[in-house]
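Below is how a single chain appears once it has passed through the pipeline. First comes the sequence as given, then the structure the pipeline wrote out for it. We keep one example in the README because the format questions we get most often are answered faster by looking than by reading.
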Amino acid sequence: QRSWAVAAEVGYQLPKVWAAPWVRAGYFASSGDGDPGDDDHATFFQLLPTSRLYAFTPFYNLMNDQDTFVQLIAKPLAGVSVRTDFHWLQVSSGDDLLYFGGGATKQDFFGYGGTAAGGDRQIGYVAEISVSWKPLPVLEIAGYYGHTFGGAVVRHGFPGRDDIDYGFVEMTVAF
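Resulting structure:
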């Protein structure tokens, strides 16, 4: 196993300005395997992934990945938070796979899959927006919408399906 991963983020928040805007930017990269036929495994393996920490549209994870992003978080009203993200995604090695999945969730299912990058690197771009509202201390209602503009890797692995639209609404009760 010869793999690596690196992450860097920077941000600035203006807590005394209306909506307390917080601007963030970051870069994540992990190794891919440039020669799947040799005896070295060079793809970074994400043991216990939690995809929602970095992306709400779960068609990729942190293996063989480069993610350059900008993000804006704002709180325009008490109990309301709005988050917008823009990601530029690439695979680190076009000779490896675009990996997806969230890990082992059942005893008979490993929880990862992949599609060949086909020698390309461009996964695509993801634009996201999410809104959460906490009307009560124990209740949060959230909605999300994301659109992926698929690149060459997506077109290679999923012909005729360049773009992805994904969304959800959820309610969380915590006491």
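Strands lie at 5-13, 22-30, 66-77, 80-90, 97-100, 113-116, 122-136, 139-150, 163-173.

See the next section for the split statistics.
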